[in-house]
């Protein structure tokens, strides 16, 4: 039997700690370089970054800058921009990655599966007709064909430039 070792996943699997605003990765990311934080685009109220523990190649997260946990606590401006960034993420992923569909959603609360429940974030997961195989089911492993840095560079390069307020 062959094994595909993915030791970087152990950090996610073993760590049940739920960060607060003092150690929140989504609060810290905007203060780092885009390359280091895997940020592909920055808006006025929210930004887009690659998931460090992706379900699929190109798995993006749309996060507000402000630290809050529940979608119903978002301001109207945050809600609009999260939606707009999600739409752009889909368009760019189709262009760059030729994906066939998406899983989009938010896990609200730790019990619902949120890895970082304290900071709202929306998942944008590209899907392909042939992306499911036996690995996730039998081996509990996902094989990703590109490095995160390469994916970030391609998506960031294809992201449209914001012309600013009309």
Automatic annotation (TrEMBL):
Pfam families: HIT (PF01230). One of its GO terms (molecular function) is nucleotide binding. It comes from the Bacteria. InterPro entries: AP-4-A_phosphorylase, FHIT, HIT-like, HIT-like_sf. A motif (Histidine triad motif) lies at residues 119-123. CDD domains: FHIT. Residues 25-134 form the HIT domain. Keywords: Nucleotide-binding. Coiled coil: none annotated. The active site is at residue 121. Substrate binds at residues 51, 113-116, 123. This is HIT domain-containing protein.
